Amino acid sequence: MKRTCVALAIGVALALSGCGKQGGDAAPAKAEAETGFAAELRNKLLDAKPGDVIEVPAGTFHFDRGLSLRVDGVTLRGQGRDKSILSFKGQKTGAEGLLVNANGFTLENLAIEDSKGDGFKISQAENVTIRGVRVEWTGGPNTSNGGYGLYPVLCKNVLIEDSVAIGAADSGIYVGQSRDVIVRTSRAERNVAGIEIENTINADVYDNVATGNTGGILVFNMPALTQQGDAIRVFKNKVFQNNLDNFGAKGTPVASVPAGSGVVINSNDNIEIFDNEIADNKTANIIVSSVYSTGYKDDKASGEFDPYPERIYIHDNGLSGGGDSPDRMDFKALKVAMYGLGGSFPDVLFNGYVNPQRKEGPQICLRGVSGVLNADGPGGYKNPSKDAKPYDCTLPSLPAVDLKRG
User: Fold this and answer.
1) Residue 55: predicted pLDDT
2) How far apart are CA 391 and CA 384, in angstroms?
3) Which whole number is the average pLDDT over 225-235?
4) pLDDT at 396
5) What's the confidence (pLDDT) of residue 241?
6) Whole-number Å distance between alpha carbons of 92 and 18
7) pLDDT tens digits, residue range 64-75?
8) How many CA atoms lie within 13 A of 196 on its CB side?
9) d(CA 259, CA 325)
10) Which residues contact 219 (CB under 8 A, 6 or more apart)?
11) Is-contact 120 130, C-beta < 8 A?
12) Are 174 and 158 in contact (CB under 8 A)?
């Protein structure tokens, strides 16, 4: 019996040893294969021709420098945003993980992690599709993270859907100076700005989730850019608990966003906010403001720039909580002065900057909100007003964005 046990023990030990050896061989083989594909992918992007579909297999592929593409009509496709991972941790060169300057580009079903700068940037392109993509800085929120996750700029006809952005030091999902844009069914969390539409014309932002950011959804118009934003609809989104401390770099526009901001409209015109669920954003669920109150300095404003938010229609949203613990001392003092220690800001906080030359006024129209506070930013918050009568109006609904893709 004793001999049998010893023999059995030796047999088991040998079997386990054999299994361990096979696993040890498999791991280097897998690492070698992944390293080999990383070099192969770089070459495929360099040698791409119009119409190419470049497949990324499941696995984690490491790059120490950025990838780029300059050929029209290419698709880069992985096996899933949690299966095919392009990792740029330890990236030494390149301002982005992936940079594209090409029309008709599709990026789908993969992840870009830990890029030194922006995750995925596409510039001066038409007919852009971003689908099923995750961009993430896996170490969590940090000022040293890249600024932008998904970053189409100076583009036309942009579709972003079913995507995720986490940890960007500026904006998780950002579309700037573009025209004809849809951002839908995506998620942004633990960024400074979850989703940002900036100096863009004709955009629909819907069926998204923005939570755990400093600001949930931002619609901004910045002064130094030649194209002015116009006609943005934000609807059917869930925007809740965006209370993350602002970790944006000092001096950047997004660094001015108070923690606890749900939807923020800044110096933009023709904006419609409706059918959203907006809740528990500690500064305010909705903020309407001018660049004059941000503290952002820019002496190179375009001659076309209008700093005043006008023709803003906010209606039929589900609003709850929020406004109970605003960021920054001036807002804290204002809240206590107007609503007491245990009180809260109403659903809408307006900083009060209006164009005195505009006869029809700012046309900020509010329906179905708990109230509005005009904070009197121009007067240093000395004469705030709770009067909701100036905002009791309606505006025509904006048309849907049609990308004409059938």
Assistant:
1) 98
2) 15
3) 94
4) 97
5) 98
6) 40
7) 999 999 999 999
8) 32
9) 10
10) 196, 197, 198, 229, 232, 234, 263, 264, 265, 266, 268, 271
11) yes
12) no
| Distance separating alpha carbons of residues 276 and 195, to the nearest angstrom | 14
pLDDT, residue 406, reads: 74
Interatomic CA distance for residues 200 and 392, integer angstroms: 27
Gyration radius from the chain CA atoms: 25
The pLDDT, as a whole number, for residue 294 is 73
Residues 6+ apart with CB under 8 A from 233: 203, 204, 205, 206, 271, 272, 274, 398, 400, 401
Classify burial at 252, counting beta carbons within 10 Å of its beta carbon; exposed 0-12, middle 13-18, buried 19 or more.
middle
Task: Report which residue type is found at 60.
Answer: T
Q: What pLDDT was estimated at residue 315?
A: 98
Task: Categorize the per-residue pLDDT at 3 as very low, low, confident or very high, splitting at 50, 70 and 90.
Answer: very low
**What amino acid occupies position 263?**
V
Return the DSSP state at 393: -
Q: Could you report the per-residue pLDDT of 281-309, keeping only the tens digit for each?
A: 999 999 999 988 776 555 567 777 889 99
Q: In the 8-state DSSP scheme, what is residue 381?
A: T
- Nearest alpha-carbon partner for 344 in 357, 352, 335, 332: 335
Q: How far does the chain reach from its first CA to its final CA, in angstroms?
A: 77
Of 364, 370, 351, 394, nearest to 285 by C-alpha is 370
- The CA-based angle 280-332-323, given to 5 degrees, is 20
The rounded percent of the chain whose pLDDT value lies above 70 is 90
> pLDDT digit string (tens) for 386-397?
999 999 999 999
Token digits for 240? 């809740």
C-beta pairs of 330-335 under 8 Å, 24+ apart in sequence: 330/381, 331/258, 331/283, 333/381, 334/373, 334/375, 334/381, 334/384
DSSP 3-state assignment of 15?
helix
